[in-house]
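Hi D.,

Good news: the full-assembly prediction came through. Inputs first.
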Amino acid sequence: MTEEDDIDGLAAEYVLGSLSPAERAEIEARRRGDRALAAAIEAWQVRLGPLSEQAPGVEPPSHLFGRILSRIAHQGETERRSADVVPFRGPAHQRRLATVVSALAACLALALVWFEHTQPVPPGKEPSSVSCGTRYKDFWEQFDQPKYARISAEQLAGLSRMALRAYDACEAGDDQDARSLFDRLRRMQF
Amino acid sequence: MPVSRQDLVAALRQTARGDRAAFRLLYEATSLKLYGIVVRILGRRELADEVLQEVYIRVWQRAGDFDASSGSPITWLAAIARNLALDEVRRKTPRSLDEFPEVLQLPSEDDPAAAHERSEELKRLEACLDGLEPDKKELVLFVYHYGLTREEISRRINRPVATVKTWLRRSLAQLRDCLGE
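Then the structure:
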């Protein structure tokens, strides 16, 4: 993705759905830090969104809503998107790609959800009073994009799992474990 | 179940406050449409079932993010459904071209029920799509509804990927200009 001058074209294809898995993952990684890209994506969602009205409806299975409700009830315990679930099928390069895409998608989905629901950390605030979502979000924000290019898919997946463990420990109230995991994550060299 | 845009906006606001009755109403009013979207992209019902669950869990978590001033509720919901379906389908090994129909099947514009449901925004967009060459219009619609990548389209129509990219970019730029931005 080198065409700096064609953010609009990329955003258009992202919303249309024609980008390859790698390009899609890259756009998702980039959009949070790139306001021009994020704005272009939103504009294309408004432009092309009405096409969804054309799609004929299909009746979902009757049990689905019950499952959704029960998952909501258990939310926070078991239903967080996790990078642990990586499909291992197909040739090696596809597995690698799947790993990268899954890990990035999981990280970004979580980071985005928590970013939306958390406030920036006020300066001087004690780390222990910072919400788990903010700590998780901060980790990924500090994990700059050039590093994504340097580390292997396996390393990224491992990193993602560890960050989720840290978040889970924090949410579970195990602050010592969470702090130790976040510290280890920050100290990692690639 | 016919529910007005205003009803959906209200249901989203109440869902954001944790109101499960409003969430149920939202599901009943929109799941037919959203399931149609994800089934079409994913092809397989069992995958679509999983993704639809994810969609509504996301809606439950993020209903408060919906901004009524920037678009319709159904467009917002459909964008969540399409994104999750596209993410899921991209995790899979490349799809066989046999999984896609030969022609795009959409409700006819002459169908009174379909005409009734079409928003002003869709009518404007359809008018702009009619300004594209017929094969480019078909291409854009096919990609949108089935989530094909450039590579998949390239194999389907037996043209180079670079050509497909050029066609898509030009068609999309033409649509943007036609919509007046």
